[in-house]
Amino acid sequence: MFRTNMRVNVLLLVMFLGNALAEQPLLAESSKISDGPIVAAKPERKSVKPLHKIIDEQIQARYKDDSQYVSALSGDSEFLRRVYLDLTGRIPSITQTREFLEDRRSDKRKILVNQLLESPEYARYISQQLDVMLMRRLKKKYINVNTWEEFLRKSVAENKPLDQIVREIFAADGSNKETQAAARFYLARNGDVNELTRDIGEIFLGADLTCAQCHDHPDVNDWKQDHYYGLSAFLIRSFVFTDKKKKQTVFAEKAEGEVKFESVFEVRDKTSKGPETTLPVVFNGTAISEPAFKKGEEYQVKPAKDVRPIPKYSRRAQLGIAITSPQNRRFARTMSNRLWAMIMGRGLVHPLNADHSDNPPSHPELLDSLTDQMIAHQFDLKWYLRELVLSETYQRSSVNDAFNQKDAKELDESQFTHAIMKPLTPEQFAWAVLQATGFTDIYRKSLKEKLTEETLRKKLVGYEKRFVSLFGGLPGKPVKEFEVTADQILYLSNDGAIQGFVTPRTGNTADRVLKVPADQSEKVAEELYLSVLNRYPDQVETEEVITLLQGKAGTKRSQTVSDVIWALVMSSEFRFNH
Amino acid sequence: MRCHYACGTHESLTRRSFLGGTTAGALSMLGFSGMTQVQAAKKLSTQQKQVVVFWLSGGVSQLETWDPKPGTETGGPFLAIPTSAPGVHISERLPYTAQQMHHLALVRGVNTKENDHGKGNYIMQTGRKKQPGFAFPYLGSTFSSHLAPPDSPLPGYISIGVGGSSTESTFLGPRHAPLVLSGGKAPNNLELPKSMEPERDVLRRKLRHKISQRFEQKRKTAHTEVYNESFDQAAALMARRDIFDFSSFSDKDIERYGKHDFGRHCLMARQLIEKGVTFVKVGHTNYDTHSENFNFHIEQLGEFDKPFATFISDLSDRGLLEHTLIICMCEFGRTPRINSRVGRDHWGTAWSVALGGAGIKGGAVSGKTNETGTKVIDREVNGGHLFHTYYQAVGLDSTEEFYPNGQPIAKADPKAEPIKEILA
């Protein structure tokens, strides 16, 4: 642990010594440095500006006319709820809420962030987010989904570098038991070269190359048909193969096969030179040259009926290396931008899959800094998320007076002058509802010493899946922005399970609140608001609860408490991460 | 080089669901402003057009339905019978439908050049060939968006017995996605929880609204408005759950329509149209008869014919047919050649679609296939022509454009035009 940290310090030092050192020699240095003595790092460290400071400087430098509209920093309640949702996927419990609000330490936010990043819930939630990014909620095909989820969860838990996770995914063909789960990326897509090319372009390179399949992109000058087929060329020789003896489906590969393409426009114009082909290449990088074999000597295992061929040279094995290579800044840039959007609510390049010169980032220098540091920190996911949430930019309030001025234009979200309201993801919504209503507490208690993140999730996964199926969109097409359907609202309004959460049951929120003596309605209001919205009620809200409960006893009182919990859980304050 | 309508830009894809959200928001706003425009609303309600699609999934045989070729090598064993439309003959497998032919028009020159179930389905339900990069809305969503009054509490597109996906509405937004009555049942959770009195529900919803409003002060509210509005929409849907009460059909009706699923689904569709739902799709399966084509068609059409004909006659008797467009179609036809298993295979090259009701000239026939049904020899049309025809039949301009991302997307294929000879 010590050594890793030190290595990062040295890297940062090198990073900021000047621009003379380009990315490549810098990374080449890194492996040497990690093994050698680390002396110079400590004294120089102070001069290295942490990323969260750089973020704030660069965001603030661009406020300009909008500076009068900058929101105040969030209060403790607002920050607490937001950071819990963003790093653990749930809202804090009432105990955690009280502890934090009463904590008087000046660096309590930083302490909390560190706690959350080390929690097992961090690994569960962030790996779920990675899963949606990579798999788009595709259904099970060939690979057990649980083992895939476990591969991601473990990777996040041990803070495996993001580029390494991606390389492992691209390297896995499903034949090796230990790495089999990671082959889900290929196999759930049935090895379809076009689907894989489009998804790889979008997810890892920030480019929706769909149009470039048939011709150079009509609207985006940067995106050529060659880019599409440069990526396809890595995969064109691969195919899904089921080994009947081993009862195993793998992503196998042949030793021959080239992509062939010509523009449909040129064909129509009769100017076509005929089909072109390309070697594997990631965007404008260098094409990967290939070893030549004598005819008949291309295979380790030759193709035959019911036999999985193994070529001596695998094109696909180059894919992960080429995508994550330091020469390919697009990868680090896209990952930095995606994670930024996940935390901040909007990409610096926006939409996330439209990174091209006609759609510049809102903050080009900042995106460059994020990308540089992502590379310098060797794709350290935890470090990156920590820096983002420690920034003032992240910690601004979603409240802004300008929204109230009827004539004022709506504040441009790309300026990050205020916290952007993010609809809860299906997973966040499920876990937040279970936490707010006290259902998680019931299960935590019942598990006693068996309580771990995994055992708890096993208990709650049914509820989580219900939310995902209603709010998550269709396989392959997860919901990207905010959508509402009749089914969702009917479920929230009338489903027996939801009504069950808000009805008193030993240990849940309704039950706890009903134990507060009837003459202490003020306390009731406080319990309700702290449990569900993680903040103290204001005067109006307290009086509202008092009025609602006035003169009610027995069933009537119990019903009212349930209804207030329901109303709080269904409010827009709860539905959004604000 | 510009790409006109064939493929979308990156933006159209990524912003689709966002637009879905804002469309719902815009509509909810219309809902409010609509209240002040009483006259406009009245006009809408008197002119409101409705659409019913009968979807014979798997691909019904045109030779055993709308374009029989008795006595030829490809014609199969069935005869052609005269119908209530002078000069128009259809297969003897549709005796009840033949009695309603004066309400129906036939398009016998369909050539979609597509023999794949999925792609054929896409062409027939969107009027376009499937293209990477841009998703056209399905016709249920399209007509829900064009024809349903903006403040209607009713869902605009209901699908019975044939499934449906929330992605069908694409950039038109979730409000126009199909409400699927799976298993021929009403949606889940239409009823309040057992313990919940309606008055109590009103109070908790009011409280929900109040708490939300307080939160929304000084915050950006585009999304929260949609969210709040959706609770009102759900309440409206619950209040109109009578449209989903399928328990009170008379014994006589059940007898007339048949005691099987399809008969019941047709009765449900009749009720939904009566209650004002804009678009209903009713499915009947399965016509994918690669073997035993004739036996299967005896069975399937035996089930289909009477309820379909009864539906048309009921709509006509009740005065609903004049503003309701009926479309009977599937993903493609079946091969004239009879294969070795006495089956017919997929055939998008020369087949038929039947239309009726609003805007359609009853008894009209467009297009002709050759003697053996292997080729269209007169008035060849494709999905584009059909879409222009559907639009114009309900009084919409099919040459207009959508603007899903600020860029024009033609509503129907600009290379095609309506089949004027069957339009009333």
Describe the protein.
The complex is a heterodimer of chains A (578) and B (424). With 578 residues, chain A is mainly α. Chain A has a domain at 423-577. Chain A has helices at residues 2-17, 23-35, 41-44, 51-61, 76-88, 94-102, 108-118, 120-135, 145-157, 162-171, 184-187, 193-205, 225-235, 264-269, 317-324, 329-344, 364-376, 381-390, 392-395, 426-436, 439-447, 453-471, 486-494, 496-502, 509-514, 521-532, 539-549, 554-570, 572-575, and strands at residues 238-243, 248-253, 299-301, 310-311, 422-423, 473-474, 477-478, 576-577. In chain A, strands 1-2 form a two-stranded antiparallel sheet. In chain A, a hairpin with an 8-residue loop joins strand 3 and strand 4 (310-311). In chain A, helix 21 (439-447) packs antiparallel against helix 22 (453-471). The longest helix of chain A is centred in the C-terminal third of the chain and has 19 residues, at 453-471. The two termini of chain A are 35 Å apart. In chain B, the strands form five sheets. Chain B has an eight-stranded mixed β-sheet, sandwiched between helices. Chain B has a two-stranded antiparallel ribbon with strand order 2-3. In chain B, helix 9 (251-257) packs across helix 10. Chain B has a single domain (18-422), classed as Alkaline Phosphatase, subunit A. With 424 residues, chain B is an alpha/beta fold. In chain B, a hairpin with a 6-residue loop joins strand 13 (368-369) and strand 14 (376-378). Chain B contains twelve helices and 16 strands. Classes of the chains: A mainly alpha (578), B alpha/beta (424). Chain A: InterPro entries: DUF1549, DUF1553. Chain A: Residues 315-547 form the DUF1553 domain. Chain A: Residues 1-22 form the signal peptide. Chain A: This is Cytochrome c domain-containing protein.
